[in-house]
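Q: Convert this sequence to structure tokens.
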Amino acid sequence: MLRYTENETLSVREALHLYTCGSAYLLHEENHVCRLEPGYLADFIVLDKDPLGVDDRELREMKVLETYVGGVRVYPAD
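A:
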């Protein structure tokens, strides 16, 4: 069984940053995405809980309530 030590893991905050701004940076898109500000593309989800405020074991149980692509809600469909 593979076991991880604390220095081999990422915090939730680090993981969220790498999946969002980190990915944008690698794609040279950091000036178009990665922020909820005017002039940036708005692709994001709304969760039922704050991922920074729950225990790590609860992360897999979180539910997506809404999904927005380009600032337009696509889930749930109207």
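The first strand starts at residue 44 and ends at 47.
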